[in-house]
Write a structure and sequence with these properties.
4-stranded parallel sheet, single chain, two-stranded antiparallel ribbon, binds zinc ion
Length: 197
């Protein structure tokens, strides 16, 4: 039985968050209503973030000004551009610390049935950026979902007319994993992407 339509609305709104189902949304809603200081703090930091942060005009990372810290960093190479689906993917690369080039954040993958086409992903901006910044390599770092593969294929074709080298991430066996537990696709791809030692 519903306690209040307002509580129901709050729970429903929280299900928009990734990985939050109906039951955990309800739990979060009750927590916030019973811990009003935490709720107020959340509202204030969220509205500050919404007000201050916007997409970088070059790479669509989030930033406070026009350009993000990565695009402003003179020590990062403009020659390599890593195209990722989501901001969380950019953060994952940055945590690794090995990549010293720049990024472009698509914000999703091509999905014509959901109305997500090249324009929505900023692909015309990406193609322009490759041209104006003299990018020599584009790393198509999309995930291995069928939409991710289709998006990488589309970008590969779109960049086909230019001299830009297109690369994809190697797919393979995670560190420390046993071969016998790998699925066939991972094993086949790891075999295809083998390198000389
Ligand atoms: Zn940027």
């Amino acid at each position: 039985m519903s306690i209040s339509p307002i509580l129901d609305n709050l729970s429903r709104a929280l299900t928009a968050l990734p990985g939050v189902g109906r039951r955990s949304a309800n739990r979060h809603a009750l927590y916030l209503l019973q811990n009003r200081d935490d709720a107020a703090q959340l509202i204030s930091t969220l509205s500050q973030a919404l007000e201050k942060l916007s997409p970088c005009s070059k790479c669509r990372n989030l930033c406070e000004g026009e350009l993000c810290s990565i695009c402003q960093d003179p020590y990062r190479s403009c020659e390599t551009l890593c195209v990722v689906e989501r901001l969380a993917d950019l953060q994952a690369f940055e945590r690794g610390g090995a990549y010293r080039g720049r990024y472009f954040v698509l914000g999703g993958v091509l999905s014509p049935l959901d109305g997500v086409g090249p324009e929505q992903l900023g692909i015309p901006d990406l193609l322009r950026l490759c041209h104006t910044e003299n990018v020599s390599e584009v790393i198509l770092a999309m995930g291995s979902s069928s939409e991710g593969e289709a998006t990488a294929h589309f970008l590969d074709q779109a960049l086909g007319a230019s001299a830009v080298r297109r690369t994809r991430l190697a797919r393979g066996i995670p560190m420390g994993a046993e071969l016998e537990y790998m699925d066939e696709n991972t094993l086949s791809r790891a075999l295809e992407a083998r390198s000389t030692i």
